[in-house]
Amino acid sequence: MSQTPQSHDPFGTDPGTPGTPGAPQPQQGAPSSDPSLHPHDPYAYDADATRTNPLDIDAVPAQQPAAGGQDQYAAAGPAPYAAPAQQAPLGAAPTAEGESVPPAGTPGVYEGPLTGQAVSRSDSRLWATIAQAAVAVGHVISWGFLGWVGPLVVYLMYKDRDRFVRFHSAEALNGAIAVFAAQVVLTIVITIVAVFTLGIGTILYPLVGLPALLQLVFSIIGAIKANQGEYWSYPFNLRLVK
Question: What are the Low complexity biased-composition ranges (predicted)?
Answer without folding.
Answer: 9-36, 59-96
